[in-house]
Design brief:
Layout lengths: L2 H20 L5 H18 L2 H16 L6 H17 L3 H18 L5 H23 L3 H25 L5 H15 L5
Amino acid sequence: MQTKELDNALKHYQKVLQIEQRNQQKNYSGLASTYNNLGTVYYNLGDIDQADDYFKKAIKSHDNDENKNQELTATIFSNIGFVLNNKHKHEEALICFQKSVIIRINIYPDVHPSLAVTYNGIAVTCLHLGRTAREKGDIETEQDYYQRAIEYARKAIDLDEKSLPKEHPQTELHKKNLAYFEQSPKLN
């Protein structure tokens, strides 16, 4: 997205948030969704700290909701995982992605593109964890994480190919990631 479009989205969601906050009846699900959307816009603008704040507000608001939307829960966990990866908190990111996968496996059929996105998030996280292991001189753990990155990237592509049109941008991104992951142990 272009910065202008993101700025417009940010203004829109901030107005929605003001309306929701003025609402006397607490619609936690609506608030959680708006916080998540604001976090996503800030993430796309590169403001990771603001994104993190809004995703945390989203999960807190969502926790107060008696009628939790499980897809929203899974999405928020994935988004927090992406933020944590950006903050180099890869072990915490992996936990968030794993929570998202568990929820999505339980609410979706075997083949769904949202599950592919989460698998790709796990793959990226495993790549980072592999690099961290390499920096510590732990070659065995490094190789284990690289293999897991490749495994999850392949799962993502498999789901993409079964659930999305041919040459979908998400599939193409996941294929590029897999090619990179397969080269990563050979880099540096």
